[in-house]
Specification:
Layout lengths: L1 H4 L3 H10 L4 H4 L7 H10 L4 E4 L3 E4 L16 E6 L5 H9 L16 E6 L14 E6 L7 H9 L3 E7 L6 H13 L4 E7 L8 H10 L13 E3 L8 H15 L10 E10 L3 E10 L2 E2 L3 E4 L2 E9 L5 E2 L1 E2 L4 E7 L8 E4 L3 H35 L1
Parallel strand pairs: 3-5, 3-6, 6-7, 7-8
Antiparallel strand pairs: 1-2, 4-5, 9-10, 9-17, 10-16, 11-15, 12-13, 12-17, 13-14, 13-16
This protein binds guanosine-5'-triphosphate (GTP) and magnesium ion.
Subcellular location: Mitochondrion
Family: Belongs to the TRAFAC class translation factor GTPase superfamily. Classic translation factor GTPase family. IF-2 subfamily.
Protein name: Translation initiation factor IF-2, chloroplastic
Length: 376
């Protein structure tokens, strides 16, 4: 187990003591059951998976071969320079009007929405119950961290480039993020605001080419669509491109079992207390579940979907807002469901906090020693 966790045996044994495991349980020849092994995995911030046939493992071993698992919705993040029309485009796709209500017309957080594909496809398309999960990100220069998180949680990025403004600093930033993510993130360029007169699409394309983004139509490998979020032009084309790319990627995830995901954003609501929007990546999150994220935990009191409806179960690809947190989790934190319920969640967080303290102490000590050496 220590080998699998990539820790020293003594570290494992120390955690066992801290988990109040008895001496006989701690003996090297004792075989732990999957619950015990899972609790230990969580202690080391690893993700336990228990499969009826394959037994105990830690993520991603069991899910490594996903071919037999159900399809999951693609996570599509809308990114680009400030005011290039990301929120408006998403509003048009989901028949909402978020952009109009934003302070100064500037997005300052990551918005997450699950949109039924049937509402996105042209009339007469074959019926489907598939959905696309969209994340809206801010384009303002100040929100680099949020963009980086957006890019790390996603399958596909829609790079929105306003045709009247072209490639700008945050356009380049997004291209670099996608390039750094390699094959794990696909990109579609949406040349936006194509309703405007006197736009120069060739200039946009050559700007993109200078950043290493060659469109398919020019012999490269990046699909591009011409759209206008405001005038609702080219949306079918965009949705079709996204669906095709998602299909090629064959995105699948385990639906059964404990939930895993990540925190998209968090804040304190006057009425509800601490709330956090999370995106479930694997498994099913249910109300009442004990979850840990970063240095805090929650017993899920309520779950609300992106349309404000209360739900009781959230499957992969579903963004949900959760109440019941002890402390404010940090956006980007990995979320895990605690195998042993509330008790284990509490312990896990106590351990993480203690580890942080230990590390801080060790760092202090190192600094003091370094100073001493210097003084000598
Ligand atoms: P940030 O989130 O702050 O980065 O901005 P954004 O990219 O979400 O842009 P937003 O959707 O808020 O739109 C910015 C401005 O561009 C608004 O005034 C929109 O009405 C306008 N706009 C957005 N899309 C289009 C479009 O397709 N055509 C035209 N003509 N204007 C658009
Ligand atoms: Mg916006």
């Amino acid at each position: 187990l220590a080998e699998k966790f990539n820790v020293k045996i003594v570290q494992l044994q120390r955690r066992m003591i801290e988990l109040d495991m008895t001496e006989s349980q701690r003996r090297p020849n004792n075989i732990l059951n999957s619950d015990e092994a899972s609790n230990l995995a969580i202690e080391f911030n690893l993700n336990p998976i228990v499969d009826e046939e394959k037994g105990f493992d830690i993520y991603p071993e069991i899910d490594a071969d996903v071919s037999g698992l159900p399809l999951r919705p693609p996570v599509v993040t809308i990114m680009g320079h400030v005011d290039h029309g990301k929120t408006t485009l998403l509003d048009s796709l989901r028949h909402s009007s978020v952009a109009a209500g934003e302070a100064g017309g500037i997005t300052q957080h990551i918005g997450a929405f699950s949109v039924p594909l049937s509402s996105l496809l042209p009339e007469g398309s074959p019926p489907t119950d598939a959905t696309i999960t969209f994340l809206d990100t801010p384009g303002h220069a100040a929100f680099t961290g949020m963009r980086a998180r957006g890019a790390s949680m996603t399958d596909l990025v829609v790079l929105v480039v306003a045709a009247d403004d072209g490639v700008m600093p945050q356009t380049k930033e997004v291209i670099q993020l996608v390039q750094a993510a390699g094959d794990s993130v696909g990109m579609v360029v949406a040349i936006n605001k194509c309703d405007k007169p006197m736009i120069d699409i060739d200039r946009v394309k050559s700007n993109l080419g200078a950043e290493g983004v060659i469109l398919e139509e020019d012999g490269g490998d990046v699909p591009a669509v011409r759209v206008s979020g405001l005038a609702r032009i080219g949306l079918d084309d965009l949705v079709e491109t996204l669906s095709t790319l998602a299909e090629i990627r064959d995105l699948r995830a385990r639906v059964d079992g404990k939930a895993e995901g990540f925190v998209i954003e968090s804040n304190v609501d006057k009425g509800l207390g601490i709330i956090a929007t999370v995106l479930v990546a694997r498994g099913t999150l249910k109300t009442g579940a004990a979850i840990v994220a970063g240095n805090t935990w929650a017993r899920v009191r309520t779950m609300t979907d992106a349309n404000g409806n209360e739900i009781f179960e959230a499957t992969p690809g579903t963004p949900v807002t959760i109440t019941g947190w002890r402390d404010v989790p940090t956006a980007g934190d990995q979320l895990l469901e605690a195998v042993g319920g509330e008790e284990m969640a509490k312990k896990c967080i106590a351990n993480r906090l203690r580890d942080l303290e230990r590390k801080a102490l060790a760092d202090d000590l190192e600094a003091v020693n370094a100073k001493r050496v210097e003084a000598r």
